């Protein structure tokens, strides 16, 4: 078998996107479909993912939608079975479902702290358990995990979220070593501040206070936020890279506003 044959991608690469009812997940589903991948959208807001899947189909793409709660073993298993029946063996998984509830670490209840860990870290592990064994058996596949810039620059009043993303990166970095030589690529994409539904439910007063603390600690040096499509494009680049190429970690940050240089009066 030649090297090109060994590393050939199949013509059909079904992809799963979780947390696909809005924001980065919805835009990623659209971007992957536009790149020619059949996509399965999963989220708890079933009506919303069904609408997005219908819009993708109307644009000529192939898409299905199913309910998914990444905190439930049974839900993940049922979702995986339905997706495989609909689209065939899954070649790409984008683990995007996430949640964050702001608050001082000493005030956040242990239950709330654990809920964020469950969605952001354990939910990714449940997806890994559901889809990675088949990829390893076929000797190919892409696993993309949405991390956050808090994994390298923790932000105040987001302690549980930071802990979940630090844990996620630890898991994925160990996973990469375990997957080496299997043909399965595990990648991290780290969004910086991004316009999305995460944070929209925060009370305005609390959200303003948290942003002030980011500024205080030098974590919000300018006001620009990313659009979700920027992350979708980055994820698409990662999973469509030629085989033999592993884009392992991508940081996507909002560019600062262009400064107008004013020459001093002479």
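-> sequence recovered:
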């Amino acid at each position: 078998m030649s090297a090109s044959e060994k590393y050939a991608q199949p013509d059909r690469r079904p992809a799963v996107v979780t947390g696909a009812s809005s924001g980065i997940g919805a835009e990623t589903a659209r971007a992957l479909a536009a790149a020619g991948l059949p996509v399965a959208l999963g989220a708890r807001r079933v009506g919303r993912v069904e609408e997005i899947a219908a819009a993708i189909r109307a644009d000529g793409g192939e898409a299905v939608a199913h309910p998914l709660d990444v905190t439930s073993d049974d839900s993940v298993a049922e979702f995986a079975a339905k997706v495989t029946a609909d689209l065939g063996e899954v070649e790409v998984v984008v683990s995007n479902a996430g949640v964050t509830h702001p608050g001082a670490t000493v005030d956040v209840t242990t239950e709330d702290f654990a809920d964020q860990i469950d969605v952001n870290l354990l939910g990714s592990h449940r997806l890994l358990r559901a889809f990675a064994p088949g990829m390893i058996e076929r000797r190919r596949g892409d696993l993309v995990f949405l991390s956050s810039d808090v994994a390298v620059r923790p932000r105040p009043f987001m302690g549980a979220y930071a802990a979940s993303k630090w844990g996620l990166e630890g898991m994925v970095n160990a996973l990469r070593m375990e997957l080496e030589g299997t043909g399965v690529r595990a990648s991290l994409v780290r969004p910086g501040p991004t316009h999305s539904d995460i944070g929209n439910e925060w009370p305005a007063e609390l959200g303003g206070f948290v942003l002030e603390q980011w500024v205080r600690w030098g974590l919000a040096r300018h006001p620009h936020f990313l659009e979700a499509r920027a992350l979708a494009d980055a994820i698409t680049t990662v999973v469509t890279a030629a085989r033999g190429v592993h884009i392992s970690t991508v940081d996507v940050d909002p560019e600062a506003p262009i400064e107008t240089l004013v020459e001093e009066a002479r």
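The chain is about 45% helix and 15% strand.
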